[in-house]
Specification:
Blueprint (H helix, E strand, L loop, with lengths): L23 E3 L1 H4 L12 E14 L5 E11 L4 E3 L1 H9 L10 H20 L4 E5 L14 E2 L23 E2 L3 E12 L6 E11 L3 E2 L1 H9 L8 H16 L3 E8 L5 E8 L23
Parallel strand pairs: 6-8
Antiparallel strand pairs: 1-4, 2-3, 2-12, 3-5, 7-10, 8-9, 9-11, 11-12
């Protein structure tokens, strides 16, 4: 199926369960331009999705609503196209499952897992949340927000298409930084996508912090899916600085009732975040 089957088009919402709405997009469509080969990726990773509008009815017609968290690996062949997932999840709205909410949730999440496993040809972890955590954890509390530094308002930002040449070297051995200024555009509709990027890098050389902020701002007019932006940032940093350890997490604002949070890392131990834990609902950022 084409990645633009539904994007940018007026589509009638299905009134009944419709697994045929799901569209799988080959990851390699974007990876080729960065020299990434499926059998020799410089990262491991997970794609984390939060769907805020899942709802269905019990057998007695009682609506059940909640948040669906999906986590699946980035080394499989496909990602799921976001509008197709929205249409698919909305196809449950008027369907009836279970004699009570608990039973219905189990039935619906099992169906969703089976459909996504089949569509993406990988194992997708699926969790349903019907209430907020009392004390939601947050993985990036100790990360320095780059634009909060006083010097950030004194430097010039002149590049708004990806410019890796902006990245300069620094002598720090470890970097833990973030920025809420991430912006890119949907590759099909050109709609803006807003997000936050968190970067951990350890090695002999690290990026100068303000040059990294300039680089992240330069992504502002790029047209890619969220997962592709994360892999682009990771690949640039990996190739230029050759770090011992690297992790890039991009937490995007929800659009269409769904947010997408890809994470890429040089080793699996760096993926052990609450964000990537399917059983945990981590703290939301301002624009999620």
């Amino acid at each position: 199926m084409s990645e633009d089957k539904f994007l940018g088009k007026q589509v009638t919402y299905p009134q009944h369960y419709a697994p045929e709405m799901l569209v799988a997009v080959p990851r390699q469509l974007n990876r080729e331009q960065y020299g990434l080969q499926e059998n020799n990726l410089p990262f491991v990773g997970l794609d984390v999705w939060h769907a805020y509008e899942l709802s269905f009815l019990t057998e007695k017609g009682l609506p059940v609503t909640g948040l669906l968290k999906l986590v699946y690996p980035s080394d499989n062949e496909f990602l799921v196209e976001s509008k197709s997932l929205k249409l698919y999840l909305n196809s449950f709205n008027m369907e009836r499952y279970g004699c009570n909410p608990k039973e219905g949730i189990k039935l619906v999440t099992n169906i969703i897992k089976k459909d996504l496993d089949r569509t993406l040809k990988t194992e997708v972890q699926v969790s349903f949340f019907d209430k907020l955590e009392t004390n939601s954890p947050f993985d990036f509390t100790t990360y320095q927000v780059l634009e909060d530094e006083p010097i950030a308002s004194e430097i010039s930002f002149d590049h708004f298409n990806e410019a890796p040449e902006l990245l300069k070297y620094a002598s720090n051995k470890e970097l833990k930084v973030g920025s809420h200024l991430l912006r890119s555009n949907c590759k099909i509709t050109n709609q803006p996508d807003w997000g936050s990027a968190y970067i951990y890098l350890k090695g002999e050389q690290t990026p100068d912090k303000m040059s990294l902020l300039q680089y992240l701002v330069s992504i502002r007019n790029e047209n890619h899916f969220h997962e592709e932006i994360c892999e682009m940032i990771y690949t640039r940093l990996w190739n230029l600085f050759k770090p011992e350890e690297l992790m890039v997490a991009c937490i995007y604002t929800r659009r269409g009732g769904i947010d997408i949070c890809p994470v890429r890392a040089s080793q699996s131990s760096l993926l052990k975040l609450e964000l990537t834990n399917p059983e945990v609902l981590s703290l939301k950022l301002l624009r999620q």
